Amino acid sequence: MKPESVSGSSLTGHRITWLKGTTGMAVLILAAVLLCSILAPWLAPYDPNQVNMTERLAPLSAHHLLGTDTLGRDVFSRLLYGGRVSIVLAIAVTAVTMLLGLVIGTLSGYWGGWADDVIQAVVSMFQGLPGLAFMLAIAGTLGPGTKSLFIALIVTSWPDFSRVVRGEVMKLREEAYVEGIRSLGAGHTYIIVRHLLPNMIGPLVVLGTIRVGRVILSIASLSFLGLGLQPPAPDWGVMVNDARAHFRSYPHLMLAPGLCIGVVSLCINWIGDHLRDQLDKKSSPDKSLL
């Protein structure tokens, strides 16, 4: 029989107190940001790319809550649309990275042998390279743009996922219930899909949640350096880059998008830490019977 205390069991069916302390605050803030981003076409008072040089660098006012940038574009409207770009792109990158790491890690951990040796040699090679420098090299080689940003983030992220998945698969494949299923004639695909993958959902959800926050920071960093999303895209990193020349006179132009990046990333990390704590409690033998 499949033990209930296997690490990484499904998050469903267990009580998780979300609205408590910093985690509850993080959930509410993140939900508000997501809602505002989704409703940006209705909430934004102006077109985020509408240029109006007659109102260039306008101060904070009732007409422009956060003023305007160097091209007269409404900063508040660009902030609302910037959340859509950054968060959607971060989720897409994380999803593809998790899928790639899941496939490679499962193949490596389940079959082992020479396949595992070859895959781990490649993984070690990628992990031996400085992450940010490698990301910059890929983005710089491919040229600035969304496509190069997408590729750079995936290439530098999948080894971590694959190594975590490999460790979980190697641990789960030795469980008694897996040996029993195998002795009954179950095929490899059945064992992997029906019994191994469901038991890895928990750790992958935690790792994926934390990764989304890191990807948002990476997107902003590359856009700030001119290697990510390009103007006039209403992206938070692009907004920070555009505001550099006027930081002393108009600090809010840089502080507003920078604050959004930091707050969203921090909230996502708080939620990820909470999920990890819940999984640690559920995998603990003395607490699994409570």
How would you characterize the overall build of this protein?
The structure is a single chain. The protein has 290 residues and is an all-alpha fold. It is built from 12 helices and no strands. α1 (21-38) packs across α3 (75-111). The radius of gyration is 23 Å and the shape is elongated. The relative contact order is 0.16.
Explain briefly what this protein structure is.
This protein is mostly helical and 290 residues long.
Question: How is the CATH topology of one domain named?
Answer: MetI-like fold
- Radius of gyration (Å): 23 Å
Tell me the distance between the termini: 20 Å
What fraction of the residues are assigned to beta strands by DSSP?
Answer: under 5%
The coarse silhouette is elongated
- The proportion of residues forming helix, as a percent range, comes to 55-70%
- What structural category do the secondary elements indicate? mainly alpha
Order of helices and strands: HHHHHHHHHHHH
Total of helices:
12
CATH domain class name of one domain: Mainly Alpha
Q: Let me know the largest β-sheet.
A: none
Please render the helix and strand layout as text.
Layout (H helix, E strand, L loop, with lengths): L20 H18 L1 H4 L31 H37 L1 H15 L3 H12 L3 H10 L2 H15 L3 H8 L4 H9 L4 H24 L11 H7 L9 H32 L7
Subcellular location: Cell membrane
Membrane topology: Multi-pass membrane protein
InterPro entries: BP-dependent_transpt_permease (IPR050366), MetI-like (IPR000515), MetI-like_sf (IPR035906), OppC_N (IPR025966)
